[in-house]
Amino acid sequence: MADLIVAVDVGTGSARAGIFDRHGKQLARADYPIAMNRPEENHAEHDSENIWAAVCIAVKTARAKSGVTAESIAAIGFDATCSLVVRDKDGAPLSVNRKGEPRWDTIVWLDHRALKQADFCTATEHPVLNHSGRVMSPEMEMPKLMWLKQNLPQQWEKTGYFFDLADFMSWRATGNAARSRCTLTAKWNYLSHKDHGWQDEFLQEIGLEDLRERGGLPEKTLSVGQSVGHLTAAAAAELGLHEGCAVATGLIDAYAGAIGVLGGFAGEPDRLERQLALIAGTSSCIVAFSKDMKPGFGMWGPYYEAAFPDSWLIEGGQSATGALLDHVVRSHSAGGEPDAEVHARIVLRIQELRAAYGSEFAARLHVLPDFHGNRSPLADPHALGVISGLTLDSSFDALCRLYWRTCVAIALGIRHILEMMKEAGYDLDTLHITGGHVRNVLLMELYSDVTGCTVVVPETNDAVLLGTAMVAAVAGGVYPDLRAAGPAMSPGGHAQHPNADMRETYDRDYRKFLSLYRHRAELETL
User: Fold this and answer.
1) What is the model's pLDDT at position 429?
2) What is the per-residue pLDDT for 295?
3) What is the layout of strands, in order, in the sheet containing 493-496?
4) CATH 1.20.58.2240 occupies which residues in the chain?
5) Statement: residue 133 has pLDDT above 90
6) Residues 60, 230 contacting (CB under 8 angstroms)
7) What are the CA-CA distances from residue 399 to residues 331, 438, 459 (Å)?
8) Helix locations, 152-252, DSSP H
C-alpha cells in the first residue's frame, strides 16, 4: 500500500521537498534555489516555470536520497508564499514586468508596487475588509491585480488565469484549475463562510468586475485536505513520481507551518484556542484559531476553514524580521555579507557583552522594526523603521549592540501583536515556533521572556513541510481527515518557560517601545 507523502514548500528564495512516512517522520529532504528579479524599487518578480523546474529537481533529489520507489508515494502537497501567478488564455506565462520581459510572470508576496491600490481598497471601507483587519495590505492579491489592470492593460486583456502560487502548483501538477479554500480566503478577499464567497459589489467598486472571467476563478473552493486530482503523465515524469499520486489542495506557507506545529490539537478545539503558531524566517507570521469569529484591527482574518475544519484563523505578522537582521548586518560598516557564520559571530559576541553588562547592555538604544512597513497590529504598509540612540562608534561591538536591540524590537513587536489579539478576545499562553529563528538563540530567549509565553519548539526542523504532508496524507487517503492526521503525525516538542527575573526589564522596554511609536506618529503629523 502506498502510504508515503511528498511535501513541497516554495519559499522566497528556494523550493524545498521532503519525503514523510505516515507517522510524520521525514525520510529525506532536498532544496533548490529559485530566481527573483528586482527591476525597480518595491518590485519583486518570480518566473513560475523556474519555480516548477526547481520543485521537480528538489522532489527527484529527495526521493533519490530516501531510496523509496515512486509507487510508494500516496500523495503530494504544495505550500507556497502568497505570490500572484499570471497566465494567458492558453496557460502560458504572461509577463508582469513593466518592460515586458516574458519570463517574469509572478508578482512576489513581498512586492509593494500596489501601495496606492491598497490604500484605495482601504478607503472603500467595504465590509469585506472586516476580514482583513479593516485595512488592505499591498501583499494581498486584489491590489496587485488592480495594479496590473491599471498599469499593464494590454497584458490584462490577454489574461486567462490568475493563481495564488500554491494553486498554480496544483494546476501545473494536475491540469485542474480548482482553487484552495486556504489561498482564496486568505489572500483574495473570498468569504468562505458565506454561500457566495466572491463579493461582486466589492470587485466592482475597485474596478475588478471582470476579475473572475479574466482569471478563470471558480465560484466554489476545495477544502484543506481535499484532492485536486492525480498527477498528469507529464507532471509525474518531471517530478519522478507516478500518475496514481494524489495532489492535495495548496496551502499558504505560514498556514502549513501552523498546521505542522498545532496539528496535534486538530481534534481538540478548546485546547487549540490557547495555542499560537509563530512561523518565523525572512518575515514572521503569528497564527491563532478559534471556534467563533473574532475580528480585530490590523489582523488578517478571521478566515473560515483556511486551515483546520470548522475553525476560524486569524493572523498577525511582521513583514521583515530575519530580513531585517540581514539588513542590519549588511548596512553596518563592521558587518558584511550576512551569512550564517557572520550571524553566529555576532550572537557569540553579544552573549559575552550581555554577561559583562547585564540588562544595561545597549539599554539606551531603541528600534522600531518597521523597515518594510507594519503589517500588524498597526496595519500601516507606509510605516518606517526607527533607530534611536546611535553614537559615532562604528566598531564590531557597535554592530552587536544594534543587532541585539533589533532582536529585542522584533520580540517586542510580537508582544504588541499578542496584546491586540487578547483585546480581540483570544486567550493565549503558549507559543509554538518554527522556521529559521529557531536557530537564533537570542530570538528564542526573547520570544519567551518578552511575551511571557511558554515557548514550544517542535521536534522537527521542517514544520512547514510537515504541515503540508499532513494535508497531503488526507488527500491521499492515508488518514480520513486532519483530526486524525494531525495527532498521528505530530512531532511533539520541548517547552521553554519565561525567565521571571527579566519581566521588569522587558516591561519597561515595552513601554518605551510604545512611546517611540507615539513619537513617530507625532513627527508624521508635524
Assistant:
1) 86
2) 87
3) 300-304, 312-318, 284-290, 275-280, 430-434, 454-458, 493-496
4) 322-418+504-525
5) no
6) no
7) 10, 22, 33
8) 153-158, 165-174, 181-187, 200-205, 211-215, 233-239
**Are 208 and 217 a contacting pair, CB within 8 Å?**
no
* CB-based contacts of 404, cutoff 8 Å, min separation 6: 350, 353, 354, 361, 362, 442
Q: What are the tens digits of pLDDT across the range 434-481? A: 989 999 999 999 999 999 999 999 998 899 999 999 999 999 999 999
Pick the CATH number of 322-418+504-525 from 3.40.1010.20, 1.20.58.2240, 1.10.10.10, 3.90.79.10: 1.20.58.2240
Q: What is the mean pLDDT of residues 342-360?
A: 97
Total length of the chain? 526
Q: Where in the sequence of the chain do the CATH 3.30.420.40 domains occur?
A: 4-249
Residue 278 host element (H or E): strand 275-280
Residues 6+ apart with CB under 8 A from 129: 121, 122, 135, 136
Answer yes or no: are the C-beta atoms of 298 and 135 closer than 8 Å. yes
pLDDT band at 201 (very low <50, low <70, confident <90, very high): very high
pLDDT tens-digit map of 144-163: 999 999 999 999 999 999 99
d(CA 472, CA 466): 10
Return the exposure string of 422-450: e unless at least 16 CB atoms fall within 10 Å of the residue's CB, then b: eebebebeebbbbbebbebebbbbbbbbb
Res 160: pLDDT: 97
Architecture per CATH, 4-249: 2-Layer Sandwich (3.30)
- H-run or E-run covering 369: none
